[in-house]
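Hi all, long-time lurker, first post. I run a small reading group and we've been trying to get comfortable going from sequence to structure in the token notation. Rather than ask abstract questions, I figured I'd post a concrete chain and ask someone more experienced to write out its structure so we can walk through it together at our next meeting. Sequence below, copied exactly:
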Amino acid sequence: MKILPYNRFTIQTQDSLVDVIEKLEAHVEAPKAFRSSFSRNHAPYQGRINISGFEIYRIIHYRNSFLPIIQGRFEKLPAGIAVHVTMKLHPFVIGFLLFWCSTWYSVTLPMLVLSGFSGDIPWEGWLFVGLPTLILIVFLQAFWYEANRSRRELTQMLLGGTLSQPVEEFNFLTPRRILIGFGAIAIAVVALFWNDFSVVHYTVSAESQSCSQATVASPYCDFKVVRTLEGHPTVSAIALSAKGQMLVSGGTDKALRVWDVPNGELKRTLQSDSGVIQAIAIAPNGTTVVSGSGDRMIRIWDLNSDRPAKLLKGHSSEIAQVRISPDGQTLTSSSNDEIKIWDLATGELQATLPDLTTTETSIGSVSIVQHFACLDLSPDGQKALVELGQKLMVWDLKTHQQLHIKGANLFYQTLSNARLSPDGQTVATLSHHKNSTTLKMWDSATGKLKAEITLPLSHDWGWNRMSFDGDRLLYSTPQRLFVWNAETSQLEANLAQSQMRQLTLSADASAIAGIIDAQESQIQVLQRL
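-- Answer (accepted) --
Happy to help. Here is the structure in token form:
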């Protein structure tokens, strides 16, 4: 198959130059500035002819930007004339194609290269590189349809229908080639959207699966506000005990407050000397509390003692999350750029992640350190959801196995929220665009997208408004609390509830707590009734 829009060939005739010019002039008329599209009283070609050569093009009554310009040069031979013919596109069309291709590939190729540095080149990237070329190949056949027709007609003009060599006719408009062209484009389009065929798509509104209207009520519809705690106006972080009977709050006042949830009483206040408290965890024994602060230090508190908190130093930036293992022996803490694992009893640092072998990529003699950020820690502190380079990864902190969420290439999207399910099987990401909010659920084992859900637009999207409760995903919006089944990706419950941040759940799934921003921040506790 001929692809490039350029063709050269030679026609030899025993006629004199005068006869050759006469034969051409019989089929070529002078160019006109305006020609009616309805007029058929004209020669098949228009252009200019002189003793050195000609430049002509076929007169057509339909649009074809790939119509070839035909240029000819006469050469005298001992026994006749050789007509050297060149067919090519108009310079303006060539310039437009070069501009279009350079603009397209100046955007797509750098994106592909940068994705390659992260080790994650999505299949859509290859498709965006190849699709314009495929489309261009299909449409360039319009040039060859015209070029082969003009070659055949020029030969007939000069030789009276006798060809110097057999010419293969290429008719772009045969049914077979039309089907091939559209088939190729159809295959490309299907490939572009293939992944979407197995993905659940739907839109959620304030009325979707409302608990007040549901025929089969979810157990989460039984959650009601049982307590509003108003004694900590500067609260910035909260944690619930395993059975939801105790709540610990920390704030910008550098203080920890311990609450009895059933009666709403403040049981104790623990004052820190520095650092806004940003993360809290309660040990399974119910008497040890760990806090992480903006002063880059971790504090371990004993609620049965008046002794000062034990300090753990080592983080290079403010603490974002703390988790305690179910056996109460291991503490996992994270800041934006690192994860540390500690022995909770001794305070000994056991590991720091990542190391250079994880984040450093070598290209020849050049080493590139990839960006690392911890987005979430599982409740038991055994797994982490991290951003490594432009990749979204589920990292097993014990085995160091890394599962790559291949479809969530962060070069192409910016996340406003991301959460990892307790079993590490599902990753939920939230992104906000100009006119929509999109929730996506990913299968961490395969890296494939399971569901894409359009949510009510929210202009207030704090990082901690989304949380997992076992295999249920909860997300708080200004007026609703949505609950999804992470296995089926279906909306299970929709509760009328003021927006909460720092959404927190008890280990036994009996209580939900969150911070409500009013004139003075409040803590609301919901329990199953």
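A couple of things your group might point at:
The chain has a mean pLDDT of 83.
The helical segments are 17-25, 91-117, 123-159, 175-193, 356-359.
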